[in-house]
Amino acid sequence: MANSNKKTCLDIEKLPKKRVWRFLDLVRWEGFWFPRSAVPSAMTFRHTFTARNDDVLLASSMKTGTTWLKSLALSCNRRNGGDADDPLAAENPHFLVPTVETAVHTKKSIKIDIYDASSPRLIHTHIPYSLLPDSIKTSSSKIVYIARNPKDTLISWWHFFNSIMPSIPLAKAVDSFCAGVHDFGSFFDHVAEYWIESRKRPEKILFMKYEELKNNPKVEISKMAEFMGKPLGSEDEVEKILWKCSLERLRNLEVNKKGTTYVFVANKTFFRKGEVGDWKNYLTPEMEEKIDRMSREKLEAIGLFL
Ligand code: A3P
Fold first, then answer.
1. Can 126 be counted among the known catalytic residues?
2. pLDDT tens digits, one per residue of 226-255
3. What CA–CA distance (Å, rounded) separates 101 from 98?
4. Ligand 1 binding pocket includes 93 (Cβ within 6 Å)
């Protein structure tokens, strides 16, 4: 293992690098841009993870509703524990459902070792479909992917990094986003890969949209629970889960007002407005057109409208 780690580090140094935000090196690995610090764990995951048939992998590009998806999936899994059994009340969703490539950077030690945890495992990744471990693709494990409108994703991404790093102008963020030079980018390729695979294997990948979850939460959460093999019972149960995982509730929990998950990221950073169409408050018509052009070329051309 020591040798393979050494080899991985050497290889990373040879990969192309860029910086959009100060302090954050991006590295291009197999056609996608990764935060430099995430590459070793992403490589290890790809080469050493053995999926089990009852694993559920949540997947997303950044700022597309990951926190919500983690909360909902966790609550569907744990719902037999009753009202008192609500881990979300004590911990941030990112701590409870680790993101494989960033879990190693937490201040607190993660309770769940994804390589060792008891079944059924619920894990999350931002890694693109093409770079997932083969065993995830070939086993009967399931993948739930969440996508979001590119313009709202971009604005959410811009706010997120501006709140944890020296800010950059929106025009620069738009250019980087459209060029695919951002964490786990290109966003468009990321979404397209999972979309195409979900069309081929709907029993394997459930492709969800943030906007549909907002507009029709009961139907969407029931669909997701069913897909995960945890069908929900009464309407009351559905409503309880939606309330437990609502932005308002999570934002106001003490742990999310004060705590931190990642080395330098406060839990509260993950809860902003949660609105559909917030981009209208920020983008100029030129910026809008630039992103729409990408959507037409990369997503609408394959039948995906976000
Ligand atoms: P905005 O920045 O548009 O408000 P991610 O979880 O992938 O980092 O995405 C963050 C986005 O999801 C943020 O969007 C955030 O406000 C929103 N969000 C976080 N928790 C949510 C929840 N429980 N319900 C709906 N949206 C949520």
1. yes
2. 999 999 989 999 999 999 999 999 999 999
3. 9
4. no
For 22-55, what is each residue's pLDDT tens digit?
788 999 999 999 999 899 889 989 998 999 999 9
d(CA 295, CA 297): 6
Q: Give me the domain span that covers residue 184.
A: 51-302
State if residue 271 touches ligand 1 by the CB under 6 angstroms criterion. yes
Helical spans, DSSP H, in 228-260: 235-244, 247-252, 254-258
Distance from the alpha carbon of residue 10 to the mean position of ligand 1, in angstroms: 36
In a domain, 169, yes or no: yes
Tell me if 146 is assigned to some domain.
yes
One-letter identity of residue 57: L
Output phi, psi for 293, to 5 deg: -60, -45
Write down the catalytic residue from 94, 124, 126, 159.
126
- Give me the number of domains the chain comprises: 1
**The pTM of the whole model exceeds 0.85:** yes
Q: Whose CA is nearest to atom 12 of ligand 1?
A: 65
Residue 36 located in a structural domain? no
Cβ–ligand 1 distance for 245 under 6 Å, the answer yes
